[in-house]
Specification:
Blueprint lengths: L1 H26 L7 E9 L12 H11 L3 E9 L10 H9 L2 E10 L9 E9 L3 E11 L10 E13 L2 E9 L7 H13 L6 E6 L10 H6 L1 E2 H5 L17 E5 L7 E4 L10 E7 L4
Parallel strand pairs: 1-2, 7-8
Antiparallel strand pairs: 1-12, 2-4, 3-4, 5-6, 6-7, 8-10, 9-10, 11-12
Length: 285
């Protein structure tokens, strides 16, 4: 009789628990599903469009209308100067787009007036999903602020970890040296490869200031998948915006990822065209 009562109790308990389990599953329907992620790289030219006018709202609308979930930004001003009205572009875009953000300054200078915030310029990450870890790494740079620059380590290489509905994604954003001589870019590529962790679901995005046939970029093509080669159509030219003739903006992924759709976004919000790729993130069994 005692055993029968225990069996009845357990059965009743299972009936009570079952709706709770179902409700929890319905509350988080993505818990066991793969996730489609749209990743973008965008050199925003400090919010200055192809018409030469400053319009950070145009930048925001380009990102919003693209449907991008995670964005790596280059040429970002934070209280930097008159060209961008001394605005904090990272804070503005994050609020406007309702996204998480991380800013990685290359330059961090005194303000023009003592009471004003410091003047900063660099790279940033915007994310629909929470950023759980972030770091501003150093790579070799030839400063544009020094009269006689020498190659030296400098910040401005952001790396973040993002929680995409329970899947960990690593994103690194870069802006390589623009000069014709590739020797700085060669050092920068070596630096980045030594920093980027060897793990799945990893992205490296940015303005490389070099075309795909540049020898200094080959180590990147050897280690990563090039999203344009994987899933783009056409030449993928991104610069200059008014009449693109070069592919210098890239999305690289770790080799476990297979981009399914990569496109250049048409916009007049910058002197570069952004690139976006769609990737399916799979959960571990």
């Amino acid at each position: 009789m005692k055993n029968k009562a225990i069996v009845i109790f357990i059965a009743l308990l299972m009936i009570l628990i079952s709706p709770m389990t179902t409700a929890a599953s319905e509350k988080d329907p993505d818990k066991h599903q793969d996730i489609t992620l749209n990743v973008m790289t965008f050199n925003i030219h400090a919010g200055i469009g192809s018409d030469g006018l400053y319009d950070i709202d145009h930048t925001a609308e380009t990102i919003r209308s693209s449907g991008a979930d995670v964005i790596g930004l280059q040429e970002v001003d934070v209280n930097w100067g008159y060209r961008s009205n001394f605005e904090d572009q990272v804070e503005y875009l994050a609020e406007k787009l309702d996204m998480h953000a991380f800013f990685a300054p290359i330059y961090n200078q005194d303000p023009l007036n003592e009471e004003d915030p410091r003047r900063k310029y660099g790279l940033a990450v915007l994310s629909k999903y929470p950023i759980i870890n972030s770091e501003n790494y150093e790579i070799t740079r030839l400063s544009t602020q020094d009269a006689v620059p020498e190659p030296s380590p400098a910040p401005g290489f952001p790396g973040v970890s993002i929680n995409v509905k329970g899947i960990n994604v690593s994103l690194y954003v870069t802006h390589l040296d623009y000069r014709g001589d590739p020797y700085i870019r060669e050092m920068q590529v070596d630096d980045m490869l030594s920093i980027i962790s060897e793990q799945k679901n990893t992205f490296l995005v940015g303005d490389m200031n070099a075309t795909p046939d540049a020898p200094e970029l080959q180590p990147l093509f050897n280690r990563f998948n090039d999203a344009w080669n994987e899933a783009g159509s056409g030449d993928g030219y991104t610069y200059p915006e008014t009449s693109p003739e070069k592919r210098i903006d890239y999305i690289f992924t770790s080799q476990d990822l297979s981009p399914t759709n990569t496109q250049v976004i048409d916009t007049e919000a910058s002197d570069h065209l952004p690139v976006m790729t769609e990737v399916l993130l799979t959960r571990d069994n």
